[in-house]
Design goal:
The structure is a single chain. The chain is mainly beta and 245 residues long. The chain has one helix spanning 2-16, and strands at residues 27-28, 32-39, 44-45, 57-65, 72-79, 85-90, 103-111, 115-119, 131-138, 145-153, 164-165, 200-201, 235-238, 241-244. Strands 1, 3, 4, 6, 7 and 9 form a six-stranded mixed beta sheet that branches. Strands 2-10-5-8 form a four-stranded antiparallel beta sheet, with no helix packed on it. The chain is elongated, with a radius of gyration of 22 Å.
Length: 245
C-alpha cells in the first residue's frame, strides 16, 4: 500500500511539472555560445504587445545571470518553424509570475520571422550579478521548440582601432552589443543617430572597382514595429584622421 501511494505521488508530481511554464520553473540559459533547443511550454496567453492578429500563443520562460562586469549578454533566439514570436525581459520573479513593476518592456522585441537577436546594449545596460527573466511568446498552435544561443560578448570592433579585417572569405558578425562610436558623426553614415557602431577594414590591391557583399541581414529587433535598419559609411586614412568617402 505504501509503495502504491509513493508511485501515485511521483506520477502526480511528474504530470504536474512543466518546465518553462512560469518564471520559477524557467529554463536556465547557459551563456557559453552553445545553441540549445527548449520545448515550448503548454501555458497559453492571449496578451501581447506586438499586436499579432489572432495570435493566442504559448508562453515559455527563460532566465540568465549577468557576470560581475557586466558584459553584454547576446541572445540569438529562433523557433523550429516560421512563427511570430515576441520577447519581454523582466528583472524579478514573484511567486512564479514576473512582477508588473519588474517588466522591462523597453527591452521587448517583436520577431515577425520567428527569430531575433537580443542584447541589452540595444536598450539599457543590465546590472552585474543579477538574474533576469525572459518571457518568450510563440504563435498560437505552435508546439515545437525554441532554440536559444546565449553568450557574454564584448565586441572588439566597437572602435576604429579594433576594426575587423575582412576579405574574400565571408565573416559572420553582428553589432547588437556595440555602442555608438563618437569619433564619427551620424551624417557621415547617412544616419540620423548612431546606436550600434561596428568597424571593418579591407585593403584594395589595385586601382579600379571594389565590391563588398553584405547578406543574411536580420533586422528583426523591433520594439513593437520592427522598423530598424542599418547605415554604412566608407572612410580612408587611419584611425584618428579618417576621411569620409
Amino acid at each position: 500500500m505504501k509503495t502504491l501511494s509513493l508511485i501515485l505521488a511521483v506520477a502526480w508530481s511528474l504530470c504536474g511539472f512543466s518546465q518553462g511554464n512560469n518564471c520559477s520553473t524557467a529554463y536556465d540559459i547557459t551563456l557559453d555560445a552553445v545553441c540549445r533547443n527548449y520545448s515550448v511550454s503548454s501555458t497559453g496567453s492571449s496578451c501581447d504587445f506586438c499586436s499579432y492578429s489572432g495570435n493566442t500563443g504559448k508562453i515559455t520562460y527563460f532566465r540568465f545571470t549577468t557576470d560581475n562586469s557586466p558584459q553584454c549578454v547576446l541572445l540569438d533566439v529562433s523557433a523550429s518553424a516560421t512563427v511570430t514570436m515576441e520577447m519581454v525581459l523582466f528583472n524579478d520573479c514573484n511567486s512564479g509570475t514576473p512582477s508588473p513593476s519588474g517588466g522591462l518592456y523597453n527591452h521587448g522585441m517583436c520577431m515577425d520571422q520567428g527569430k531575433g537577436l537580443w542584447a541589452q546594449n540595444l536598450f539599457d545596460n543590465l546590472l552585474p550579478n543579477t538574474t533576469y527573466y525572459l518571457r518568450v511568446r510563440t504563435q498560437g498552435g505552435f508546439t515545437g521548440s525554441v532554440q536559444v544561443c546565449g553568450k557574454y560578448y564584448t565586441p572588439s570592433n566597437n572602435i576604429c582601432s579594433g576594426a575587423t579585417q575582412i576579405g574574400v572569405t565571408p565573416v559572420k558578425d553582428n553589432n547588437a552589443c556595440q555602442v555608438p562610436d563618437l569619433s564619427v558623426i551620424p551624417a557621415q553614415l547617412c544616419a540620423i543617430t548612431l546606436e550600434n557602431t561596428a568597424w571593418y577594414t579591407y585593403i584594395v590591391q589595385n586601382d579600379g572597382s571594389s565590391t563588398i557583399t553584405i547578406d543574411e541581414i536580420a533586422c528583426n529587433n523591433g520594439n513593437g514595429n520592427n522598423n530598424n535598419g542599418f547605415q554604412i559609411g566608407f572612410f580612408t586614412g587611419s584611425c584618428g584622421s579618417l576621411v569620409p568617402v
